[in-house]
């Protein structure tokens, strides 16, 4: 195991050295980022406010409003309500390439337990009308803040670059429908065709680092709702019931064998049952049980195999219970793998190494999380690259790494305790976006 | 297995013949019940209305109001709001024994699926503030209606009996706290001390039958809420989590071994997990899972053994998952066994046999359901007896019995499809209450 | 639950008192048993020798030889090799009823761990050619010894009784084929038709007690071998296998739900997987797994239901594993319920009570063990009764009973630590057989 | 996932091109291998004979005898009985490097089901005295045959190379103790110190191919025997038992969660329970159950984590069953990872590519199997490399690959149906050994 082992952890040593340093990008980036110190306090304030006001997917009205207002101030051409709550800003700055930078805006139905002074106490109502506590447990607030910071700095130094900058604030990444919604809402007609689409995601890696990877970087993800039909009865008369609680438990237990037995050791895959629901009291055997589950895979063969195994197991366990009705499978979301194109990724890696040094410009391992980012370049017909942004206090991270307790001690995305450190996370997020975009937008001498 | 085998099913053959017929009771009952034909239609209407207006425990305001109003009309001394929503009516009718007849009034958080024209579409809010569909899925509407019918008939023919009749309408039987609440609210001070306390319960047995049993008739019941503490994480990174969904599933699976392996074949016991709840989406491993479970037993040794096994298994499965926090156990309700006193039960059985014949006056098997009825005689210091009332269309029942599909085809109490036939259920419920009470209240020749 | 609760434990209180004492039997028994003191030491020696020389079913050559030799000495007409290794002795003693007394002779493939000075170290080879340690773990050595004692005493006091005594020593009770083998080998042609067939079994109840029961006393038993077909592979490549170890484990786990969920609390049933076998090393996933399982039930409906559930679960779990071949089910043995006829059982109970007193003549609960004894009266066309014989030191038993640890501390039949106390077990076993047979054979005054 | 994904499958595209062709080696190899046609028939005969006469570890007397005889014929200095049954042959051929070539000789306790005309019907007795069918299910017969072929060809053309050739035939690789035994038996004193130690293993990859890999190539392996202590009882009285069959099943089921939940998707690991054993009949609950299990891992952190989880789960499941005795853990074998040194691996890869072409000189993925080969270079203080040798008919393999059914249709090592095709497997095995050794032993012009 080399670079495949560590999930989001970095393993710099395994990467080929960048083809060559990129002094032009580095120099342009230095110029643009000179203003970072002046806006840092404002960005941090914006971030904390946003963290306290998380919004569920397709409900990012407040967030989108703030974004649009800011982009307008900085003279972007702004289009709102693209794919319901998405926002696009375009800044034309002479001839040159077009670069799209993307941030996602939505939060999660998680009750925040970080203990942060700016922790969220917000609630939101999901599409089924159920109210939940809501938290930016996946760090999209970091993404929005950093992209606004980069947008502002690039807008303030149009002398340092040329071409067209598109900043895109996407709704509802979490269930995989936001990028698609923007594409379906005519995204390609609303912006110039990008030469490259770029995005980043904060991860449980050391803050101050960025992590790139060519090829498949993030997993495909399939989410299903499975409804199991038993037969209810009084809790004291199980013989009159087909107990859906026991059935659901057997399904969950049996599903563990998919990854443990049906996939080779070297094929990464995950089957998670994130939710199990049946009954409402101790003493009534309910009629049905509902599972919500998620499958991660990195190639189509594994994906097909795992999804088939899930269906086979659910169906057979229903038969083992003597269930009368067939189980129901409902697809909740589907994400493809995030597959970074070779050329832009190499270019960005070179720019990052030139600007941040080898210690901070790392190579990513496979990340089992998923993204709908890929829908944007797919819809726009352009290449793309997506990188990771460290969000954990470096000392804390390194200590846990030495103790071998990263998995245990470092809360990851979607945890109710996921808490990126404000700095250097935000600074590095801004720097990465600026640097990467300038790898296209920095004016080059002819012929270079 | 003879009479122990069939749960609520009747097995007349195994009962000792009643000591002697009881012509005095039979004759008085005939007189009182002569009026049944006149009130039948009114009772049926009351029943259907009540069925359409079910109320959760301690919220039986509408039901209690109708009850109190009717009792007042019939000249009972009425006390309302005993134990929150309980109602007592007392009818003094000269010297003689005091008989208490009890009905429970509360409904269940079940979405009715009977398809009856008078099916409930009501909802109610439980003590946690959660709204549920509500249904009279346990037949308490039958109990209330029959007791009102008996109260009316007995009040209209005070010439046919002597003594004191106490009719008691109890709230919140379902979670086992209503009878206790009435006792704690001074029940013993509010009524004369009964010579006997009587009650009945509609069961999935042929309508038109009654089922008596001396000694233990219904199970002890212990309901627990168990909270399992795992550790949440992104669904794609199970290695960072302690998955409470898998833990909960393992607990449910393991709990099956308690009855299957730790209790002798001839010791009746049930462990039902009626509710399992964890997570809210496919892709976030939650922090905790919650089980609500119920244990049925018929003697203290089995009860102790099963409850200890439940705790041992839950605790050990948490350890197997490497869970950090201890599981939490919360007692939701406790019911003792329903233990019918020998003398009153024999007396009632004799009266039933004399009035209804051997074919309809059956002996009950052990009933795995539970009751808080026993709290009333315990709180009042009097003997008691409790019998079953068939509620299923006799033809349907017999057909299922011959096909061996009773358990499958006859919805039982607490099922969303539990639907007692209106007649002869209501008639028989009234007749049983009248006949049983007259076994004490019918005037007897001196010396008999 | 009263008399159904206690498995083999006695519950004297629940039995109807014997119709009437039986002074004739008691007096004849006293006469015959007067010689017990003289043969006690010899019987004890025989018992310990037999215990040290256990033989598997249909291999009871040494035991049968000793039995035949002794019966010949006492002037019985002896027939050997009935049903392979069975022995019959007939003693004609004038006109009168014919009574058959039966003992079974075979031992079990269990490694004795009693620590007794006369513990077995014997081995034997089963019908598959596999060698096992062998032990009288079910107490058949007690049965043989007691029946020889009774045979000797009755033969020595032919003045005290009249009629015909048939003593029958049966092979291979354990897998249910020995009684059938004797019947098939012409048993009915070899002996006079008995008026009654009697047998006894030593149980984990207080030594010195006997336990009778009318009607169903012992369970039906069905033993199956289930072969599960997976697909083998190197242990490191589970994805190339269909793991039969995991499949077998899931089947075992799922089978727990049959008793826990599919049978009512008051229906006694047991599903035991006594053997699981798959693979031979840590690192090769084998092709198949084999389970041997046993189902106990007390009525045909439960038996049918449980056996159907076992098949459904096995088949469905194979499907859940994606197994290619169908599972195989092989019936290893089938025992019917042991159903004691009313009249002879009452007669014996009365005789026992008259001779031993109420404290030692107890009523049995349902015994979940099984017997092929019933094949004999079925094959001979006579009524029958079968009783239990306590084998545990009474003080030890009572102490465990008070502590509620009988199940834990008192090794039961088939345990490697099952160790009946020699006395008063043997004495009582002889006395019970003599007394019960004299309830028919004691000369009665005309008209009685 | 690129080269990590495929287990033993080849993925040529992911390998860096060899630094440079190696015409010297290629030319020397051509000379030596010119004789292959003459010995092919003899080798094939030897192979089939060996396949029919498999011997368990440390019992390879016949095999070792044939090997020693042949080496003696070809003028090797032969030492027998090194590490019990190991054989060493040394051929001095002037100045130059020393190369050690290793083959392992032992077979497995598997009943062959290949249907081959030369299938094994042999049996053998393991160290516990139990007899098993025995089969060369891991292809060590291929290794022995190919090494003998290479030894013969190199001995017949000493003009084509110079230096010292050591051929080593190792016993008992399967349980990981054979290489260690040779080292402990003074291997380093018996042979000149090698410049490199080389070995190969036949794998389910296309015959005619070789597969090299730098760094970790094969898994660490830990095999354990786990004994679970329950309490036996009659099968009808589970309440008197602590059922070790159910306990063992729960352990097996729970162990599936280790790989499924406690290891990241991108960390390869395997937990296989290869054997489960409890009880001997349907109706006696046994006292104990025994599992044999194997853990595969590729780095120490994963290894530690998985082994700790196994212990935690076993111990907790015993507690969940209320088991009285602690479970016992016995280490059966331990293999470290097979870690190929960079320099020799590159050298061999270059030589293979030069001789066999890119299509047949492939790069290996991680192989989840394990090897004790590494003990030899560790004990001798020399670098090493180990490669894979395809053994499956190429057409069959490619067809299965296209159909995505390799895992299903191509029996792998340790399967009872593992059947390498004789050719081109043997030819390629000989060619690979000759070619790789000549990468050191081919005479080079000065300064090259």
UniProtKB/TrEMBL annotation, chains A, B, C, D:
GO terms for molecular function: N-acetyldiaminopimelate deacetylase activity. It holds the Pfam family M20_dimer. One of its GO terms (biological process) is diaminopimelate biosynthetic process. Signal peptide: none annotated. Residues 1-25 are annotated as: Disordered. It comes from the Bacteria. The keyword Hydrolase applies. Residues 223-318 form the Peptidase M20 dimerisation domain. InterPro entries: Amidohydrolase (IPR017439), Bact_exopeptidase_dim_dom (IPR036264), Peptidase_M20 (IPR002933), Peptidase_M20_dimer (IPR011650). Keywords: Hydrolase. This is Amidohydrolase. Gene3D superfamilies: 3.30.70.360, Zn peptidases. SUPFAM superfamilies: Bacterial exopeptidase dimerisation domain, Zn-dependent exopeptidases.
